[in-house]
Amino acid sequence: MTSSQAQAIWELCREGFPLVAYEAETHWQRRDVYAPDRHTNVSRALEHLIERCNWETEERSTRTFLYSNT
User: Fold this and answer.
1) Measuring CA to CA, which residue among 20, 45, 44 is closest to residue 34?
2) DSSP 8-state secondary structure symbol assigned to residue 48
3) From start to end of the chain, where are the E strands?
4) What is the pLDDT along the chain (70 residues), one digit of tens a residue?
5) 8 contacts 46 by C-beta, under 8 angstroms
6) Rounded to an integer, what distance in angstroms lies between the CA atom of residue 19 and that of residue 34?
7) Counting CB atoms within 10 angstroms of each CB, which of 7, 31, 32, 69 has the fewest?
8) In this structure, are residues 29 and 2 in contact, taking their beta carbons and an 8 Å threshold?
9) How many CB atoms lie within 10 A of CB 27?
């Protein structure tokens, strides 16, 4: 897990979304992207942080795939 992902989980809990934080953590540990439910009203800054975490997850998955096939 990256430091951005840990920060996003902490921020989700801080904003009152512990179940969403757990769901996001589960996705990122499986190297899946996470998209919160449309009814989850998180701050715009947290939305951007989640997008960054998803990008990091995709990037790590791509690197792992590339290096495992060499």
Assistant:
1) 20
2) H
3) none
4) 899 999 999 999 999 999 999 999 999 999 999 998 888 899 999 999 999 999 998 887 666 555 566 5
5) yes
6) 13
7) 69
8) no
9) 17
| Token representation of residue 31 | 């190297």
AA identity, residue 18? P
Record the tokens describing residue 63, joined without a space.
């690197």
Residues with Cβ within 8 Å of 11's Cβ and at least 6 positions away in sequence, in order, are 46, 49
* pLDDT reported for residue 24: 96
Q: Is 2 helix (H, G, I), strand (E, B) or coil?
A: coil
The token pair at 19 is 């179940």
**DSSP category for residue 30:** T
Q: Which two tokens stand for residue 10?
A: 């902490």
Between CA 26 and CA 30, with CA 27 as vertex, the angle to 5 degrees is 90
Cβ proximity of 17 and 42 under 8 Å: yes
Q: Is 15 helix (H, G, I), strand (E, B) or coil?
A: coil
